[in-house]
Structures are given as C-alpha cells and as structure tokens.
Please model this.
Amino acid sequence: MTTAGPGRPRLTKQRRPGPTAQAEILDAAAELFTTRGFASTSTRQIAEVVGVRQASLYHHFSTKDHILAALLEKTVSAPLELANRLAGRDESAAVRLYALILFDSGQLMSGRWNLGALCLLPELRTERFARFRRERQLLCVQYEALSAAVLDQLGAGDAAGRAGLPFRIVETVINERSDAETVWDTETEGSAPGGVDSPALLADAGLRVLGWTDVESLRAPSEQLLSAAAT
Amino acid sequence: MTTAGPGRPRLTKQRRPGPTAQAEILDAAAELFTTRGFASTSTRQIAEVVGVRQASLYHHFSTKDHILAALLEKTVSAPLELANRLAGRDESAAVRLYALILFDSGQLMSGRWNLGALCLLPELRTERFARFRRERQLLCVQYEALSAAVLDQLGAGDAAGRAGLPFRIVETVINERSDAETVWDTETEGSAPGGVDSPALLADAGLRVLGWTDVESLRAPSEQLLSAAAT
Model:
C-alpha cells in the first residue's frame, strides 16, 4: 500500500469494476453514498473500499463534493446528448419523446447504483453542483419542448402545465428502484410497492399523460430512431 | 433555560409553530432534515432551534430516528385513512382513485416542509422504520387495487404493471417541490424544472396513464366524494 501513490501501480488487487482508478473510485463512492448516505460517508472510507490511499483519491477528486458532482453528471450527460441529437431529427415529436423516455429510463434502471436517489440531497443546492443542475435543467427543457409539440399536435395546449409531466415520469424510476432495493419483511410488510420496471411502460405513460392514446404505434419507430441516432 | 425540563413551562418565547412541545420539535426537525440533511443534523441542533434543553427533547423522542419515523408516518397516515374509507364507498373506482390522488398530492404539496424527500434515505432501511414502510405499503396496495379496478373497467388488464403508476405519479410532487425550493441561478441555469403544481393535474395524469381519456368528467364527482368522505 505504501507505493500506491498517484501514477504508481498499486500492490493490492483491483477491488472495484472500472477501466481507470477514477472509475473505481466513482463506483465505490456510488455504492457508499446510495447505501449508507452521502453525509455519513468519508473520503477515507471510499479510499479503503477501493484499496487506495487517501492521497491517491485526492489526486483524482479534491473533495467528496467533486465525486458526487461527477456521479450526478453521469446520470444526465447521456440523455442530454441524445436529446440534443433528437432535436435535429425529422421524426414526429411523439416518436422522439417516446425514444428519449425509453433511453433515459432504461439507463436509470440499469445503472449499477441508484444514483438518481442522490438528486434530492439538500447538499446539492450549492454552487459546487451548478453544472449538474444546469445540465439537468437543459434536459428538462428538451423534454418540455417535445411534450409541448405533442400537445400542440393533439390540439391540447398546455394551460395546466401538462408538458412538465413526462420528465417527472422518468424520475419515478428512482423511487421504484429505491423500494426494490429495500429489504422488506414480507410477512408483516407485504411485498415492495410497485413493479414498474420496463422503459416501454414509462414511455407509454409519458405519452398517455399528454393525451396520446395510441401508444403502441410509437414503439417500433422510436426503437428504429434510437438505433439510427446512436450511430 | 435551566427550568425548561420536561413538564415545566419554559422561559424562552415559543419559536416554532405547533400546539405542543412535540409538534414544535417535529417542525424544527423537519426543517433541518429537509434543508441540511438528516445525517448532518444532531438532536442538540434541533433542541437549540426549538429553544428547549436536549433532556426535554429526549423526554418526547428517545432518538433522532424516532423523530424521523414520526415525521414520515405523518406523510402516509392521512391518505391511508382516506383510502380505507374510500374502499367502502359505492362510487366508481375511477372517481375514488381520482379523489385519493387529489387529496394525497394536495397534502404533499401543502405541508410546510417537503418531508417526502426523506423517503429515499438509505437510513430508512432499518427495523426502526418498519411501521412507516408497512403503512406506505398498505397505501400503495390501495392505489393498486383502485388502479386495477379502473383497468378492468376499461378492459385493459395489467400484464405490463400499469397499475403501479398512479402511486408513483403522486410521488412526483416530492421532486417538483425539491426543484422549486432550490435557489436557481436563473442567468446561467434558467428557471427551475417543471411547474406541475396542481393536484388536479396529477389526478388527470394518474387516470390517463391507465388509459382513461375523459378525465374532466371525474373532477366534480371526486370533489363531492372528498367532502362526503371527510365527514
């Protein structure tokens, strides 16, 4: 361990998944933040779990806040990039919105840790997280623009703020995962709430709340769009 | 302050709203937990904010976990009581579900603090919070039963888990409030996401995700039902 400073090969076996030391630190921090809590986790504990010295950790992230910011930015960067690409496509707004929900809820469901659960931390209200808040806000704007276009097409208008709903529906993945990860005493507590675990179910819901009824017709074209937009 | 032990009138002026010392403690704790974080708040800080001695606080709540449990139980007890009363009513499942969403999202929106934001804390996964989890689960079961009945009436079935969606849609109030309470740098960050701030909008959404299109027809009867069920 004494030679595990920045840049040097460490002597312990790799304990966390990831191609770089930085990725290993992020994975360990994500587990500790989501299972023990952000405030209750120290950088010393993160370094211990990764199997590196604290000095080595500080080489990559100067504070615990920087680690949290990097983790949170990961939850919005890919969907935001897709949303920006979708904005230039010719498919209907309904197909593009359906595709964005499929992708975004899929990545929130499949990430190794339920990072979205960290979004409600009061600690995020500081300057340190301004970049994350800005990117999340840009993503939200894309959701609302697509939703407003769908409402327009349906002649529904948006006096009542309905265009904000699809973004919120994607975020329900976070609560669903949090409940699924809680160990329930099934004898006294019954099974965990919910069971909403498919991106298509949420994409259907995101379009239905706007008043779009024929959601089945959007599935195939939105999956084609995702394949096309990925390349 | 030296005479402010359990049962004795305290010498400082009341600082927090509430008819009892217990209510004042809960209000102060709710503010600190939701604005600074649960792990970052000590019982000493709560006692200071209320203006009582720590010994007096322990007279009402033996640990910080007991305070959190009491706060969380408040978020589910009223909607659960309403759901139980609605279960015995003759109105259609759609009207009853609409009424439950109106009431539940209304109370989540109007509480002085955004207590729902505490639901994702990893600390809740312990035995101490079993009662809260059980009551929340019972509430979820009522939502799912009403939703399944609406799907039945529409001949839609529930192979894809759609019946779990209305409960999740009500929970979106929590994220909405959390974003609204964040101080946004509007110059670089734009305005806060969303604007979903009406119980009727969420009740509409809860029915629409099940495939119910004529949501307008449910508003008047569900408001009548709420008045009737309240007495």
In short: Chain A has two domains: 1-62, 72-230. The mean pLDDT of chain A is 89. Residues 185 and 191 of chain A are 8 Å apart (CA to CA). The longest helix of chain A spans residues 64-87.
